[in-house]
Design a protein that fits this description.
This protein is 66% helix and 0% strand. It is built from ten helices and no strands. It is globular and about 50 Å long.
Length: 179
Amino acid sequence: MKFTIKDLARQAVFAALYFAFTMVVLPIAHGNIQFRLSEALMILVLFDKKATIGLTIGCFFANLVNVASMPFDLIFGTLGTLLGCLLMIPFKNAFVSLLMPVITNSFLVPVSLVIAFPSSEVVNGNPYFFYCFTVFIGEFVCLYILGLVLYYILRKNKDFVSLVGGKMENKAISSDKEA
């Protein structure tokens, strides 16, 4: 995979956007229910798989702000984003592809929450499954619902696709047949 100076600059912008969008909703971006608008940026991987780098770095820095669950969120939250991005790449269908980070974050982020916040909020005596459910809800709303809407609006905009490093002939971009 060729990586240019333009790609590097693009990744810096993606990281900064992820961080900034997380800071905008900071009170609800961390904890057992997480609504990170920045998760909608995961659609960028559908345009260019290199976006994985910028999004992962942005997630890492956004998790640095969460002192309550450090260093666990740095490890498990960032790993969830990285794995989610990597698992998106092989899928040609946006509906399936965007489920990957929802799933990885729904199972990895709760590990940091259980360690950092052993809580009385439990389901069947196990806070991990409670946190899996609450993280899933936030991820599904911000990444899957908002992300899919943004993706289907932006994928038809040639200027946007070019700006984020995508090509109209990319797998999920050019196809109107998503089923």
